[in-house]
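Exercise 7. Predict the structure of N-acetyltransferase from Streptomyces spinosisporus.
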Amino acid sequence: MSALTVRPFRRDDRDQLTELINAHVAAVVPGVSVSVNTVLSELERQPEEFITDPWVCERVTLVAEQRRAVVAAAHLLRYRGGEEVGETYRDAGEIDWFVHWPLASFRPDTEAAADRLMAACLAQFARWDVRVRHADGALPAPVVYGLPRNWPHVRALYERSGFRHTGDTEAILIARVADLPAPEPRAGLRFARTVGECGTRFTAYDDGGAALGFIEVDTSLSRPERHARTAGLADIGNLHIERAAHGQGWERHLLARAGEWLRLCDVDRLIAYESGDDTGAIDLLLGAGFRELTRTDRRWEHQIPGR
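Solution. The predicted structure, encoded as tokens:
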């Protein structure tokens, strides 16, 4: 293998790192990419993670360089050990994301480079002497988290390095807004649009004023100043049907009302997330114009030697 260097990220790596990240984003969600500014900002802090980001006490970004090309990169987080930190994160080390070019005829040594970089990540965890070692694939782009099934090369790296999937699996679905159910008049049904916890909320009420359910759609999946290319993309933050209204098809009415609003917002694609085990919820979305985009495996853990 020609000269390979594993070293800390330098600012002049920014364009190559962004290209490497966008290649992985593009394999997960169509039409999304991030800017250099987005990547650089994410290396410093993650303001959208307003609960966990304040718990981080140290951040390290490492790259593997070969023939002046950045062929692999990883971003590591160290969480404080204080009582104010959530138990899962307390005194933990985490690979926030790890990306590397897959094996190709013109990149015959990329797996060796990835292994060398992973060894450096594990060595950093050892120097930090963290209680637990986690790994993820949370790139600074919408919809990309966990370890997507579209990255078999990263999965293989995690597994041969001793990481094991210990969490759940989520299905990520996508629909063209044009394919969502069309609004259907229904006597005694009205909707109210309000601010929700995870986006704009549409609540369905019967003629007696009782809430039947609600849907929340988020049309701001990235911070505007970060210039991510996500135009036309939104996601479902919440879809809830009251217990007494189950089985009456209210989900389709709510999706139809959300679709009307999204068209006014010039949004043409809608993302939904469901537990991979919830076949009922997945089938409902598939029947309402969605298709499965990918599955992602959340929470990977590495056994610390001697513990």
